[in-house]
Structures are given as structure tokens and as C-alpha cells.
Amino acid sequence: MPDQTDQSDRTERPGHTDHFAPEGLRTRGTVVVVPGRGETRATYDRFGRRLAADAYRVRVVDAPAVDGGDLPATLSRFAARLTAAVEGAAGEDGTVRPVVVVGSDTGAALVAALYGTAGAPVTGVPEADAVVLAGLPGRATAAADTWDGELDVRTSCPTHRRVLTDDAGVRRGALNDAVPEELLAAAHDGGPALPALILAGDADPLADRDGLHHTAKSLAKARLSVVRGAHHDVLNDLQHRSVAAEVVTFLETLREDLVPLVTVETSAW
């Protein structure tokens, strides 16, 4: 059954959660959010509401499973799930473009690999206009032996820490799981050909900053935005308002063929 909370702009279904633009506003695009290790769809309720408030249709899917021994099968299953998510988000007038896929942690790695150029191509990949890669992991693991230790890796935001702690579906200790090397190579070495916004916290111990710079510079249309003081859960840390604004700015710029709507000519900061 749909969640009865915020029924007018949020609905729950098996496999996904939808956040809708406010009534009376024309939907400006479609955003599909892919969680990472240990996370649930509820992890991204705040982020989904913020983007929906700016008239974007947001669909959050379940975190995909990663088979470390069979990346092609993992990507094929992920492509099928993503296709169903995009097609299911279509309204009476079809899918509202641009379609942007946002991934966090291993969700970001899977998005980068799926829309990238490394390895064997995957069939049935849904057409997207851009990707957002948040908290793209490197080879480090959390090495946290307590829940508080894992939370310290994820975030310093008290609200987000409470959301994760109170969610019985969150798998504790997930950040101690190593990301398969094959997936990391596909994500970093053959990144997406689509326009990409890469988001990283400068206090994220799981990020490979040199690798992120290499990935961003190797892509034709990429922007690496580093968030001061943010941890691994860069979409949900203390700076979540500024990060959401960065994502919305990217979405709006994408609608203008990547020509910025606002440029700074003079500033005291």
C-alpha cells in the first residue's frame, strides 16, 4: 500500500518510492536515484523531496545487489531494473526529459559502469541524458567495528544519523564490504559518455580523490564538485541543502544544453 505520509506528493510501491512535483507545476524532468551499500529507499526521502519541490519527478529504487564474481550479470540485472524504473515513471505524456540517473556509493559505481565504455556492452540500458555520481567509492573500506564508527564515516548530520539508525532495513556494517575490483575499474577507467556531475566530500575516507580527478578529466562532459566538510553520504550530510542546490543547478543547466543560466562577473567571495 502507498505510504500515508505526504500522500499527495510521495508514494511507496514494491521496489520504488516516488516523489512528485507540487500540484499545478509542470514536471521539468525525471530523476532516478540508486542507493548504495546498506541503504534503503527511505535514506533518500529528504533528497527526493527537495528535488521534487523544484518540479522534478523523482523515483528512488531499491539498492541493487552486486555479484563480485559476475559483473556482466550484475549490470544486466541492474539495467533491467533501471529500465522498469524509467518506463514506470512515465506519465500521460510519456517520460519527461531530461532523464537523469543519480547513484550513491556502489549505486554510483554501477551507474558509471552501466553508462561507461569499459568492458562488454550491456543490452537493454535505458536511455538517459546525464548521470550524477555521488560518493563514488575507491578501494578503501570503512573498517568500522561499531555502528557509531560507521556513522562517522557516513555523515556528521544528526538528522541523517537518526534516519539511518531508526531504519530497520539499513544493513549495518555494509561499508566494511569491499567493492569488487572489476566494478571499480569499470566505473573509474571507462566512465560515462553522458554529461556527469561527480560529487565528493572532502572528508570522505572512502573516496579516491586522485581517481576522481582522473575520471572527471577523462570524460568529455564532466564536473567534479567537492563539498567542504562532507563525508561519504554526500547527498545527506550537513551540507545537503547546498548539495541539492548543486544537483538542481546541474539539472537546469542540462535543460539548456549545459550552458549555465547564471555566471558570476564580480564577487567579494
From TrEMBL:
InterPro entries: AB_hydrolase_fold (IPR029058), Hydrolase_4 (IPR022742)
Pfam family, one: Hydrolase_4
Keywords of this entry: Hydrolase
Gene Ontology molecular function terms on file: hydrolase activity
Transmembrane segments: none
Ranges for domain Serine aminopeptidase S33: 27-238
Extent of Basic and acidic residues compositional bias: 7-21
UniProt cross-references to Gene3D superfamilies, sorted A to Z: alpha/beta hydrolase
Region annotation (Disordered) ranges: 1-26
Protein name: Alpha/beta hydrolase
Provenance organism: Streptomyces cellulosae
